[in-house]
């Protein structure tokens, strides 16, 4: 068997893999990407956050993405019954990008992979990693192509960006259960001819359908809109029939979606995803680093996935370059801790969303603009800005704020009664 020799092998050509590959390649190293599927391929994760733009820029992808004409995104709207809460990223507390895109991931990911290939990084499609042997930090990886043909790649370092494939955690038994309860999504792309009924398309909308169940509405520049329902698996079990019957019944059951999406043509049959939350104990080891979804994926509610993928890949790539130069790298301090800082901030917001704490905050009338700007920063993905009290104290600040709002409302209504 022939053995190809590279400096860095990147597993997966999603956002994590391509951002890492580009940055390491630009530093002058020989990089190769292996990707299990043929592109374009479907993957969910269509709403980006402004914080991802800096990583996409450093990877040299912004111009190529701009050329594709994806829908620009300037904020996020939350809806519950008649109450709405609009966040415009211009209001964010942390300086940085104040817009991003809403993308069909098949096209977006292909744009990133084509761009990295044009830069000179080979991307081997329909090539699956099936085995890795480490000898210190050097490794030999076995890959299998679509014809079942095996070959080997020797690398000085591996970046695992295999997303839901979780290649290294699976091969080396590093998998750990998530602290979040399992949830399920039923979604499709709809031909959204009645889009003008809503104040869109330059933002996404999250609708609270009932406690623990919400709907995403992500309009694309093509006139197609992604609509998905997320909730406990038992919630969906109460709806009979095929997935399409369930999907249409759910669109009808929610007043916010009923008229706009009644009888809409679907671009594809509704799809189901479930139990997506996953993690692992350690995001690095001798000769490898995990990036993107392989580190930890929480929940779709705050569109954190692609941003965490891009930022973790950006951080990892710079550390890999230092490692290849034989410089000392403290992976725990310089990679694990900052990555967990971002993940844990989002985790607090995800938990507050499902517990209803965020309903109290989002749907309060006359919100304090300073606090709104600080929370807006988190929703824009600026989860590493420790000057923001809603990042620094992410686990307590939301609870405290919700309790203050509830107490003030109680006092107000009791003084009205008196
Ligand atoms: P991926 O994009 O999954 O790419 C990994 C690549 O690795 C794939 O192309 C795969 O084929 C390849 N691969 C896998 N195994 C192997 C192997 N053995 N050998 C070679 N290649 C391999 N995120 C957002 O930011 N916004 C959203 O609105 C959003 N909505 C979501 C909704 C739902 C219901 C779910 C479940 C997730 C959502 N996400 C969202 C999360 C998003 O899907 C992921 O976080 C994101 O795709 C992670 O990017 P990645 O580069 O880490 O992995």
**What's the architecture of the largest domain, going by CATH?**
3-Layer(bba) Sandwich
Q: How many domains make up the coordinates?
A: 3
- Reported by name, the CATH topology of the largest domain is FAD/NAD(P)-binding domain
Residue share in β-strands: 25-35%
- Low-pLDDT sequence parts: none
Q: Radius of gyration in whole Å, from Cα?
A: 22 Å
Sheet having the most strands: 8 strands, mixed
Total number of β-strand segments?
A: 20
CATH homologous superfamily heading of the largest domain:
FAD/NAD(P)-binding domain
Q: How far apart are the termini?
A: 86 Å
Calculate the mean pLDDT score and round it. Answer: 96
Annotation field: number of helices:
14
Bound small molecules, by name, code or SMILES, are: flavin-adenine dinucleotide
Would you state the CATH class of the largest domain?
A: Alpha Beta
Domain FAD-binding: 6-164
Organism: Chitinophaga nivalis
Protein name: Tryptophan 7-halogenase
Pfam families: FAD_binding_3
